[in-house]
Amino acid sequence: MVESSPKVDLDIQVKAYRLMLTAKAMADTYEENKAICSKYVHSTSRGHEAIQLATAFHLTEKDYLSVYYRDESILLGLGLSPYELMLQLMAKRDDPFSGGRTYYGHPSLRREGFPIIPHQSSATGMQAIPATGMAHALSYLESQEIMAANEGRVVVCSLGDGSVTEGEVAEAFQMAVLKKLPIIYLVQDNDWGISAKGSEMRAMDAYEYAAGFKGMERLRVDGSDFSDSYLGMQEAFRVAREERRPVLVHAKCPLLGHHTSGVRREWYRGDNLTQHALEDPLPKLDAQLVEQGLTAEELSAMAEEVKLEVQAHYEQALAAANPDPATFDLHEFAPTPITAETGTRSPQNAEKTTMVDAALHAVDDILKEYPEALFYGQDVGGELGGVFREAALLAKKYGDNRVFNTPIQEAYIVGSTAGMSAVGAKPIVEIQFADYIWPGINQLVEELSKSCYLSMGKFPIQALIRVPIGAYGGGGPYHSGSIESTLLNIRGIKVVYPSNAADMKGLMKAAFLDPNPVVMLEHKGLYWSKVPGTEEAKTTEPASDYILPLGKANIVQEASAEQIRLGNSLTVITYGMGVYWAKAASKLVPGSVEIVDLRTLNPLDYETVEASVKRHGKVLVLTEEPLMNSFAESLAGRIGKTCFTHLDAPVFTLGAENLPAVPLNVELEKMMLPNADKVFTAIKELLEY
């Protein structure tokens, strides 16, 4: 423990005291006006003020900060006013963080003179991964001399003690020590979750736990004593800034307020409240200031002045305007610069290439042109270059700082992209198989998908997430799944699904340049065109300048004018492997089948879909997914509504059987999945309807 000492300048202690008074006055105001202030659930920093202010005073405008929901005093220490914080408390229009969209103590800030504070969720512990991604980006950009290493930028990630038991925190710690990242994990330990005590939730505290992560510097401080906290954080910042390695600071604090306004302390804490009150940071600092010559009258006058100031800020915030309801849907996505197809799709004398090579070449082009781009995931670095060789030789070409292997950590692979993007790195990452994405869904939903919307457009997340998908040839239950419907239920991400090499290359470039999170689903059965009937997935390789915008479907096969005139035509709306099943089946009814390849599932080119359906009056929606409750069924329902008066038959759908997994045996797999024969049966029935 760093001992309390008068080495901390008196001016700094007085500043801290005034801000502690401010935090107390704010908490008292909220409690006195709880009918108004508890309309939206909130927490305060009471009991944690000393360590939070000590942290804030060491941060600079070049740093990055990830706070948790109790860190109001950090925000005050950085220079935000009570009025600004109260605007968020009351969900007002001019809330500087989210415009009234998210909870108190959930900042997202880009402001001159302040550290950058990206959006994060309040799911406890989850912030550790995006925060570590920020430190990872700093380390990477410094290694490429895009950022100056001598400026000593650091990331501070604030965590409650209960969150350290989360598995995602372990993933963050592992990467921080593995990559020697400049990050400070500040763990504020008040020994409570909501109603559960620390002894119920953990076998050790965060300081003891961190001993298992070799290379993590560890410090303990008295989080209720400002001087001890200040000197401890001074050392933590020195290690992170100068030695460029991770530090964990364990700060013991009392919890003086409610866990949140919705969970009242008196319901369950009993005598514990009295015990914690003995460690109140405010009277501790009060006594230290008196010892250094300030009078009780001076301190009392300061308290009265702060109380009046906070009351004025409260009244101002109460009178502030509410958000305009008409703005509720702004900032789902940041605008993309890629709105038109550009470059050369079919260069003269170019050879045909496979989808897997088109993807490889696209990433190669990106890494060559954009030094801030990097590529990581399981087994994509080193000698192997991916289990499908989709990153072959990239690590040798660009170095292990740019193309590298990660541990088996899907949550880190996905969630770190949020931090990377906030700092200015441009990550391309890979989940090895679609069936392995589930540990990363938490980060995808809570951190990536919501950031642009909840930060009012300040923090869109540029992330390209590659995911091999689909079944063929006995891949079995953990390497064959289709996941697009799950992804499409996550608002705020884009989902792309190319079916041929040219589209793969053009869409990959557009996905990388899109400022939003994009999941690129790549059917591994199409990678090499080895599956019978998929030869057309090999195409002439586009030039390196080719870009194909997201959200544009493609009519890959037209019906003949004669069959349309005779009323003997239909359209198949599909994507991925479905394109080739439909092509094979349509050969048995020449001229009768139009095929629409969606290429992008969100944003969806519904205009092309609707026009095709109206042109033919009959439609089959085809997918590889199990059909029940799928994207395909949803699309069929939408078609049925908007095209009802143009339909000559019900909207047909075809997909895999409704089973929980793709079986290993190839004959069982064949029974479960669609194929050309099954598609022809559906087409024949629909044409005869």
From TrEMBL:
<dbReference type="GO" id="GO:0003863">
    <property type="term" value="F:branched-chain 2-oxo acid dehydrogenase activity"/>
</dbReference>
<dbReference type="InterPro" id="IPR001017">
    <property type="entry name" value="DH_E1"/>
</dbReference>
<keyword id="KW-0786">Thiamine pyrophosphate</keyword>
<dbReference type="InterPro" id="IPR033248">
    <property type="entry name" value="Transketolase_C"/>
</dbReference>
<comment type="function">
    <text>E1 component of the 2-oxoglutarate dehydrogenase (OGDH) complex which catalyzes the decarboxylation of 2-oxoglutarate, the first step in the conversion of 2-oxoglutarate to succinyl-CoA and CO(2).</text>
</comment>
<dbReference type="Pfam" id="PF02780">
    <property type="entry name" value="Transketolase_C"/>
</dbReference>
<dbReference type="Pfam" id="PF02779">
    <property type="entry name" value="Transket_pyr"/>
</dbReference>
<dbReference type="InterPro" id="IPR005475">
    <property type="entry name" value="Transketolase-like_Pyr-bd"/>
</dbReference>
<dbReference type="GO" id="GO:0007584">
    <property type="term" value="P:response to nutrient"/>
</dbReference>
<dbReference type="InterPro" id="IPR009014">
    <property type="entry name" value="Transketo_C/PFOR_II"/>
</dbReference>
<dbReference type="Pfam" id="PF00676">
    <property type="entry name" value="E1_dh"/>
</dbReference>
<keyword id="KW-0560">Oxidoreductase</keyword>
<dbReference type="GO" id="GO:0009083">
    <property type="term" value="P:branched-chain amino acid catabolic process"/>
</dbReference>
<dbReference type="InterPro" id="IPR029061">
    <property type="entry name" value="THDP-binding"/>
</dbReference>
<protein>
    <recommendedName>
        <fullName>3-methyl-2-oxobutanoate dehydrogenase (2-methylpropanoyl-transferring)</fullName>
        <ecNumber>1.2.4.4</ecNumber>
    </recommendedName>
</protein>
<feature type="domain" description="Transketolase-like pyrimidine-binding">
    <location>
        <begin position="353"/>
        <end position="529"/>
    </location>
</feature>
